[in-house]
Amino acid sequence: MTQNPPNLRPDLAPRARYDDSRRVGQPTIGMVSLGCPKALVDSERILTRLRAEGYGISADYSGADAVIVNTCGFLDTAKAESLEAIGEALNENGRVIVTGCLGAEPDYITGVHPRVLAVTGPHQYEQVLDAVHIAVPPDPDPFIDLLPASGVKLTPRHYSYLKISEGCNHKCKFCIIPDMRGRLASRPAHAILREAEKLVENGVKELLVISQDTSAYGLDIRHAEDRGHRAHITDLARDLGSLGAWVRLHYVYPYPFVRNLIPLMEGAAGAGDSKLLPYLDIPFQHAHPDVLKRMARPAAGSKTLDEIAAWRDICPDITLRSTFIVGYPGETEAEFQTLLDWMDEAQLDRVGCFQYENVAGARSNDLPDHVPAEVKQDRWNRFMEKAQAISEAKLEAKVGTSQEVIVDDIDAEGIATCRTKADAPEIDGNLFIDAGTDALSVGDIVRVKVDEAGEYDLWGELV
């Protein structure tokens, strides 16, 4: 029996998967994709453009004519990881192009790695392509280099991330993402729907909606209507939920109008045939009003509890996932205890937690009363102990129930790794089936009776 505790860094995307089949003599590019699912989508778009120009994709350094490193700049630890990845690519291949969030600080990168061929910022697709063209000129064969209709995917075939906007208008003091990725820029609703339809037509069973602030979708374009589709998250969720695939919402700020999404969710009264999953990924970050004020966050813990109660009244099966920061500058023991008490009341299903880190350029660096490292570690331990106990109790309550699950993997011993509707890929738990899986295939959606529960994972048998 194996445990699979959730990754506690929500800035990390699932490990990229590459199809590195290529013809003899084909110019070939490698890709190291770091950071969040939004960055993974950027990597997919870059590779799709390169494949359309006749480039092959290499899964290893030795088979590539050059390597693109798509970096993360979310935290200083993520920056260090990006610099390490760039250094490894230089050592193993020698011809490296850097893009992504850390690319917004080119001098920082070239100061450590002056041998990189080029540095571009986040979602600067044309500049990345220009750099590749200079380093490795294209040489397409129009009779062989045909791009699949679905483009290049770095996730398993049965699920896909669907990015609906770029940037963010919030000014949270601990975050520099708006400086790196800019202000909110929403995609037209009809373009999102067309992409989603193509993904479903090509076998995708689950759409994971991502952005920096999903709730704010369409605000920048005044919820414009174009070709019969309005750029508003409620309308978009309704349209996506009608396509027949599971639809999972990530990065949803707890604005009051989020309550309008809940009746659309499967399991809610009046949801009809909607496949909008009863799942919200909401970055609450803290519960004490003074900490939230110092963070410049648009929420208060008591009001959030009222909203959670309202959501559960409408959709009792809803799964709530969130992330929190402990040890934020000025956080007192009393403020931290308020967060623990809030967790007891909120009873969130899935929880991740950061220890606060300074990030170059963040306004929180200048706040007084930074919390000592040993205190942050102690609070993180206590917080995760609380979250783990809540998770274990909630999963124990599912023993004996019937759950619809999606199959993510089947190993050589016939053990199927699946997810319930309450579980997003990589960051949440799994449900394992260890018998009778011969007829299953990856991407199948089947019904399972839960017969055992752990701290984060479930086990069951096919029904």
UniProtKB/TrEMBL annotation:
It is found in: Cytoplasm. One of its GO terms (cellular component) is cytosol. Residues 396-463 form the TRAM domain. Residues 27-137 form the MTTase N-terminal domain. Keywords: 4Fe-4S, Cytoplasm, Iron, Iron-sulfur, Metal-binding, Ribonucleoprotein, Ribosomal protein, S-adenosyl-L-methionine, Transferase. Its cofactor is [4Fe-4S] cluster. Binds 2 [4Fe-4S] clusters. One cluster is coordinated with 3 cysteines and an exchangeable S-adenosyl-L-methionine. [4Fe-4S] cluster 2 binds at C168, C172, C175. It is an enzyme of class 2 (transferase). GO terms for molecular function: 4 iron, 4 sulfur cluster binding; aspartic acid methylthiotransferase activity; metal ion binding; protein methylthiotransferase activity. GO terms for biological process: tRNA modification. InterPro entries: Elp3/MiaA/NifB-like_rSAM, Methylthiotransferase, Methylthiotransferase_N, Methylthiotransferase_N_sf, NA-bd_OB-fold, Ribosomal_uS12_MeSTrfase_RimO, rSAM, rSAM_horseshoe. PROSITE patterns: MTTASE_N, RADICAL_SAM, TRAM. It catalyses: L-aspartate(89)-[ribosomal protein uS12]-hydrogen + (sulfur carrier)-SH + AH2 + 2 S-adenosyl-L-methionine = 3-methylsulfanyl-L-aspartate(89)-[ribosomal protein uS12]-hydrogen + (sulfur carrier)-H + 5'-deoxyadenosine + L-methionine + A + S-adenosyl-L-homocysteine + 2 H(+). Catalyzes the methylthiolation of an aspartic acid residue of ribosomal protein uS12. This is Ribosomal protein uS12 methylthiotransferase RimO. The gene is rimO.
